[in-house]
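Give me the fold.
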Amino acid sequence: MKAIYVFSFKHNLLCSIEDIKECDFMNDEILVYSYLFNFQDKESFQLTLEIDANSTTLQLPEKSSNFWTALGFNQCPNCPLNSDQQLDCPVVINLVPLLSVTDTLVSYDQVNVVVTTPERTISADTTMQRAISSILGLIMATSPCPHTKFLKPMAHFHLPFASEEETIYRTTSMYLLAQYFKNKEGMDYEMGFDGLKHVYSNLTIINRALANRFRAAVKQDATVNGIILLDLLSQAVAWSIEDQLEELQPLFERFLGKLD
């Protein structure tokens, strides 16, 4: 039987599955998401992410900086942060544990991934780049970046391996619910998606800058291609949201009075 190793982001700890209870990951105020990677020809391993349930922020130990985590290294062109005031990129520094585990994995390695969330377990036979793309999206959304903080509701209801159609449905639903809450608070709100397009246009810029950082940090291409896949989903929201929603409209015919 192959050994299974578990890596906890919060504890910066690698242990065998037999010792999982001693790692003491869970408590009532933490959302735990685990990705178990099963390979045909190598040892399985598990990545465990712990997210504060109140702030939807990824929990990490003391962070380790290096040249490619520096805010000024391939800094996103739309970044509002100042490298004189902040040493590291708030997204990239949170990705260090992931890269330390996956930097030797190849994009098209086939893998069975079992994702355990607080509500359910999901299994998929997929490629490493798609699996890493799913984890990247979760880490980015729970990092203290001014451009990714809008995705915290999506992270709270994380859906691994979401398709383009599912992503469009979830993001537009999230955005309109945010407008409802803004209206309830007496704030200006939008009954459209111009603001959402702006958010995702910023994300495409971030994704490309991250890909440049990853090329300097990893040995293989799984993580780089993972961010490219994530960028394709961002582009779908930013550039073709109306076309995508047209395809979903038939699902809502009852609401539109078109069905008896």
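The chain has seven helices and seven strands.
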